[in-house]
Amino acid sequence: MAVENRDSHTRAPAWLKPRQVRDLRTAAQADEFLPYLRDRNEAIVATLYDTGLRVGELVQLDVEYLHLDDDPAYLAIPAHIQKDYPTERSPQYEEMNLAVDDSTYDTVSRLRSYLNNRWKDGAALFPSRQADRMTTESVRRVVRSLAEHADVRPQTIEGDRGDPTDVTPHTLRHSVAYRMLHEEGDYTLYDVRNRLRHATIKTTEERYDHFDRI
């Protein structure tokens, strides 16, 4: 019994379906939010849902890491901002292709729109009103406020629906795994492991093996 309890704590506890992510993005453009922050907040959701970045990695992104004019467009993530790096075997950076022209997560067009109209210049991709760079907590507040506005209730491991306040940036990371395994069809846990950059496939299996049974 103790092993089962421990395993249950390692599994993804909550995730969103694609339509719920669309609701978050729609909410980002609501009149309730300051006009100059709307594109930034939608770009945050789009980037998290495409890449599966951890929130601590997202806030360290600089504009120069984006290569939107390449084919395919990609995000170059330096080793020093990745959670499990640097090590003696670290690559200089990780390249992550970005989604183009997809109704659910058209990341490239969303980032283009945001960068063309953002209100504050600087190195950081996502600045805040008070500082040159958002903090992890400020990103969590943005995601939570969008979920509350849209009444997005995550799917849970218990088989019911959670509360909007349960939606976090890490929920979007789990949602990448759900999308790959359930909505896009041809992906395996090894593909999820590569996208989420887990150190081992064992970590991926512990987090998401229950997705195969949903």
Q: What distinguishing features does this structure have?
A:
mainly alpha; hpI Integrase, Chain A; two-stranded antiparallel sheet; 9 helices; 214 residues
What is the topological layout?
Blueprint: H1 2-10, E1 14-15, H2 18-28, H3 35-51, H4 55-58, E2 66-67, E3 74-78, E4 93-97, H5 107-117, H6 136-150, E5 155-156, H7 169-183, H8 189-196, H9 201-208
Antiparallel strand pairs: 1-5, 2-3, 3-4
Instruction: Please provide the count of β strands.
Output: 5
Number of helices: 9
Distance between the termini: 22 Å
Structural class: mainly alpha
Q: What portion of the residues fall into strands of 2 or more residues?
A: 5-15%
Describe the oligomeric state of these chains in a short phrase: single chain
- According to CATH, the homologous superfamily is Intergrase catalytic core
Poorly predicted ranges: 1-8
Architecture (CATH level 2) name: Orthogonal Bundle
Query: Order of helices and strands, N to C?
Result: HEHHHEEEHHEHHH
Rg over CA atoms, rounded to whole Å, is 17 Å
CATH topology description: hpI Integrase, Chain A
Backbone shape: globular
How many structural domains are formed by the residues? 1
Mean of residue pLDDT values: 88
Query: Major β-sheet, in short?
Result: 3 strands, antiparallel
| Strand order within the widest beta sheet | 2-3-4
| CATH structural class | Mainly Alpha
Q: In which range does the helix fraction lie?
A: 40-55%
